[in-house]
Amino acid sequence: MKTTVCTMFCLLLLLAASPARAHHAFAAEFDAKNCADVTGVLTKVNYENPHAYLFMNVKNAAGQVEEATFQLSSTSNLRRGGATPAVLNASLNKEVLIRGCASRNGEKGRYAASFIKLADGTVQRLGQDVEGLFGTKIWR
Amino acid sequence: MKLRIAVLLAATSLLSVAALAQEQNKTYVEARGNVVPVPLPPGGPPPRMADGHVDLSGVWFSGPTGKANAWSVVADDTPTRQDPMPYRPEIQKKLDSMTRAERQLMSAQVTCRPLGVPGLWTNNPYPHQIVMKPNLFVHLIESNNNWRVVRIPRQHKPKEEQETLYMGDTASRWEGDTLVLDTISLDERNWHSDSLHVIERLRRPSVNYLEYQYTLEDPKVLTKTWTSAWRTYSLGNEDLTENFCTNNENVEQLLKLQEAERGR
Asked: Which residues contact B93 (CB under 8 A, 6 or more apart)?
């Protein structure tokens, strides 16, 4: 059975994967129907692969600060889309807004991000369009 | 009854119109990084090498624009005219029983394993660079900055010298203007079948376009030979970038999801 389990999945992935698409399915990890605008102070930019991450301090309803983690696209897509390290780092320690969809595995404060409103007001893509916010192409 | 149907149809129609109007009036988010794709023209006949064969060299992006399209704002119309994968019934049954998290964990893009053959084409959203000389095919991929080199023409190694590899053992030849790569002996961590045989075909119909097709033979998994549709790549005008998988949280996150799914 060892032989067949992996092979069938590799074959499935070969069929399913369009080279233009992201490297794995968004819907497996995040809930596209549970997204929100999250506002807070950007504390860290982690520009690595297979995904970059942004970290934000968010005040909850009781006024306490909680950390939120946002998974972005790959550094390849971010660079080509204008979200370079310099662009993101320029908003460090400043208030930003990030559109995030919640993780499906129950981990609190973990999201996938689709865009950020940077401290200077620029709206910058960070990931896939799972809500149809930007046009007709909706990833799942 | 007729009245009820008429009312229902009218209501449906109104709903459709309302939905359409809402869709047409929808304001999309203007953001830096949004891409409106513009297909490249064919660009004339393909260049040829000193030996007369077509030169496949270039930086190639998936799709027709010669650029990255991950954040395209136009629907993906990649042709998918190909037969479904003809799985053996026991394979299909097992496949249907697995969760999305389990499926994702089998992907080399998720685990950061080498993509191997043909995954470096088929499980890879990032650009490719091909460097060719007469008798040599060099394939560089941005994904995890991996590579594959094949001499042309080349025969398979003798059976006693073969070992399982992510890129396998590739024989190569020209069939007219199509480069054919015939691969066996693939690493079981990506494919797990000692009978898998991959035949890849590459051609460059014009300066700006590259096309790729692959055929799979695996009697332990498939009921018959399966051939993909031709995939289109277009000529880019930028360099590959550094892309190493140095911070992979996918596996840990998917394992948590898998645990949560099992508990439901």
From this structure: none
Residue A4 pLDDT level (bands cut at 50, 70, 90)? very low
Q: What is the value of pTM for the model shown? A: 0.85
Nearest CB to B243 within list A10, A75, A133: A75
- Cite the beta strand spans of A26-109 per DSSP E: 30-46, 53-59, 65-71, 95-103
- By residue range, what is the domain housing residue A39? 24-125
CB contact under 8 A, A136 and B100: no
| Of the candidates B165, B176, B182, the residue with the CA atom closest to the CA atom of residue B216 | B182
Residues B109-137 have a mean pLDDT of 93
What CATH number is given to the structural domain containing A59?
2.40.50.140
Q: Which of A54, A65, A57, A60 is nearest to A116 (CA)?
A: A54
Half-sphere exposure of B184 (CA within 13 A, CB side): 12
Q: Can you tell me the distance from the alpha carbon of B178 to that of B163, in angstroms, rounded to the nearest whole number?
A: 27
The rounded Cα B84 to chain-centroid distance in angstroms is 15
Residue A31's φ and ψ, nearest 5 degrees, are: -105, 105
CA atoms of A57 and A44, how far apart (whole Å): 10
Q: Which CATH architecture describes the domain B58-73+97-263? A: Beta Barrel (2.40)
* Total count of domains within chain A: 1
Q: Compare all CA atoms of chain B with the CA of A116 and give the residue at the minimum distance.
A: B31
